[in-house]
Every structure is written in C-alpha cells, then in structure tokens.
Amino acid sequence: MPSFSHKIISLILLCLLYSSGLQAQFNSPLERHISLSVEEDMQASGNIFFSSWKPFIQEHIQPATSRSLVWNDTQSSRRTWWGRKIFEESLLERGDSGYYLFFDPVFDFSLGKESSTDRKLYVNTRGIRAGARLGKRFAFETDVYENQIKVPIQVDEYTAMWRVMPGQGQARRYKNTGWDFFNASGYISWSIHRSHNVQFGHGKHFVGDGYRSLLLSDNTFNYPYIKYTATFGRWQYVRNVSSFMNIVSQSDVYEYPKKTAGFDYLTVLIGKKLYLSLFESNIWHNPDSTGRFKPTFPMFNPIILTNTLFTKNSEKTHSLVGINVRYDLSQSIQLYGQLAFDDMMNTLKKNGKQIGAKYFNAFTIDRLFLQAEYNEIEKDSYSYTKDTYISYTHYNQAIAHPLGNNLREVLAFASYAFRRFRFDYRFNFAKEKDAGVTALQELPIYNHGKKVVSNHIQAAWIINPRTMMQLAVAYTDRNETTITNSRHTGVFLISFRTALRNIYFDF
Question: What's the pLDDT score for residue 227?
Fold first, then answer.
C-alpha cells in the first residue's frame, strides 16, 4: 500500500497535469500595513472584495498594487543587480508563465531600552522565506525564524508564567534574562477552479475588519489547518479545520492535550455596500484519553450553525457563533463591527461587541489613514467550565481577543506614508470590566482592577517594499495600574528588520 507521502506527491502531480490558465494562489502576508494597503487598493477599484478573512488569496485581490505582494511585477527603476535586490526585488526570483520561484532572508535586529526598569532590550531574529508557483494552480510558501530576544517587563512576566512568547510559540530562558525560541509556518495552495481554493498549512488566520478580532485572531502561535474557500459572485464560504494545543501536561500517554477546531464563515454582499458575515466555531477535545485521534462527522460537517444547534448541554464541544459587518460608506470610509456569542445554546451572557471605523486617504490627503475602534467582552467569554481543555485558547493564549475577556478597550490609529517613509501612531486604553470577578486560569490577562493606557509612535523608512525591509525608530509609553500597584514604563527601540507578520505586545 502506498505511503501517505506518496499519495500527497501523486495528488500534487495530478494537479499540475490538469492546470489551466489560472494564476497560482499565493497568500498575501498577514501583516497589518500590507492588509491595509490591499484594502485601500480594493476599495478604490470598486470590485467585490471579501476583506474579513485574512490572509487574502491572490485571486481575490488582483487589482491590489502593493509591491509587498510577491506575485506583482517589480517595475524596478534600478539598473544594477545590487540596486534591484536591495531596493526593489526578492533576493532570488526566477520565473515565466509556467513557474515562479522566490527566496528572501527575513530578520529583525533591534536594540532598545526600557525606562524605570533600566532593562536593555534586543531582538536577534534570523530566518528565510521562500515560495514557488508550479504550473498554474499549485503554489507553496514557507518561512522559518530563529530568535533570541529580551522583551519589555510585562511581556517577560507573561512569558515566564505561560512558557510562550506571545504569538511565537514556546520559549526557554536565554542568558538568564532573555528568551530563545523557534517558529515556522507554511502552506500548500491548490486552485481546483477559479472559484475554489484548498490550502494545507501551518500558520494563522484573522477574521474581521478591525485591529482586534472577537472571533478568530492571529494572536496565538501557528497551528496545522486545512482550509477550503469557495467564492461565487456576491457569496463567499470558508471552511477551516485546525488543530490546537494546550501547553500543560495531562497524562503520561501524550505530553500536551490537543483539540480540534472547525470554523465556518459565510459572507454575502447585500446591495453595493453592506458585507454581512456569519461565523461559527466548534472545538472538540481530541485526541481521546489514550492519545488517539478520532475523527467524527461534526469535524467535517460544512453546514454552518448545525453543529452549534446540537451542542446544548454537551460537555465535549465548545461552540461560538458570531456576526461580522462591514459597510462601505464611501470609497474612503468604512464602518465595521462584530458580535460574538459563546455557548449561546445555554446562555447569552458570554458575549463580545466591537464597533469601528476606517478612513483611507483621510481629508483627501493621499496615504493618510485613520481608524478608531471599541471592544467590550463580558466575563467568562471564551472559557468553558465543563472542560477547561477546550477553552478558546491555543498555546496558552486567547484565540480571539489578545486580552482574553472581562474588558473594555478603546483604540485609535493614525498613519501617514510619503514615498518610502511611514509614520504611525497608536493609542490603547483597556481596563477590566468587572473588578469583582476572579479571572479564570486559562484567560488571566485582565484582573485585579487592571487598567492600561499606552501611546506608541514609530517612524520607518521602507528600504524594500517586496520584503518590507525597513529601518525604524519607535517609542512606547505604557502606564499600568491595578488595585495593589502601578507601573509606568517607556520603551525606545531602533530596528533593522523585515516586517511581514503581526506581533502583539500591546496588552
């Protein structure tokens, strides 16, 4: 009998043999500034654009001109090889109508200091990013990062408690005060047809149009997944089956308990301006007590909401239902919001609410972007007292909002780009919603009356848009208070890096 790997290779070859004139489906990088650039281009194009499931698939954002998208033509004005490679292109790229290859180093070399603690901060990240299109329907991409890092005090305390660097996986001590960790991601993308795409990968996703997501965010570490996307005119359906893990030891049979999650996301364009999306997630405790994986019908059931309807009083399924709304007030102004209902078959008290607005090319100033957002999450949301192992977490972090639950949050953003210079400002205000609630063990971020106010400013020179290679200077002022104490810190950081992913330290 042929092995599993032989079957996969045979499937790939079959895909290539039956290729047609379609472009292979690369993903856009899951990074905030890149996503906003794509959104701005798509808003201006007037095309139907399903913006709330990220990363975007190439076929869905063809009008986008962001030069950080690897499949776009470089149109370099540099005459020398070194000039093109440093300022315009990938380090290695080869291709024609039948194939395309690219390869880039990725890195983050940063130095800084945290006031009041006198902590000297640094980031030493090295890695590679590579991808290929073979034929017209098949593509793959991967990246690998090796890291040594010394972080601000609130991140250091979190990492020491939960054994994970936020969003980047398990970490171990490095030279007593720093952390060492490794992470990698990748995917294989197959375009069955113009309207259908299947991806097998190890990575992250984000559901929503805001800075935060109350449904599914890229806050946690990478995870294995199988994702199917179908797009028909005004409709788009996404089915994603993922495997999550708790970093706690449960038995002698396997080190860390795993859980399987199924996500369904259905979006429809109503009229010309309103995008309405229905979200459902279900998490099952899997493997069983012996460590064996047992697939069941609900894990592969594609009919949205039906799994939730049958989970009432279930002790083995954790269900969450949500709504995402986007309304295009104009080509420049976008309103958005979310509602999340956790375990809604038994209670409506575990819920979250989001409302926000984006303003592209604000006040007719080219490349000036403004955004404001409000989030509120009730106590016990995303937790599951019947079986804490299937709470809405992965690698000891919240799968949805990075701050967990029982909170109110206000965010404001301003960004301005001129040629290759970009200036950013971010304001965060978050506080515990109900100070009398004892935080659950698995979602412990905001308790003891915690309140955080932070201001972040950054100036960056984008050296190479293809890799988002940049020189950046940033300063973050953070003031944290609880019932028992207060702490005020300022972090100054100088960076030479490639910025192709989101990392959330603002908690």
Answer: 97
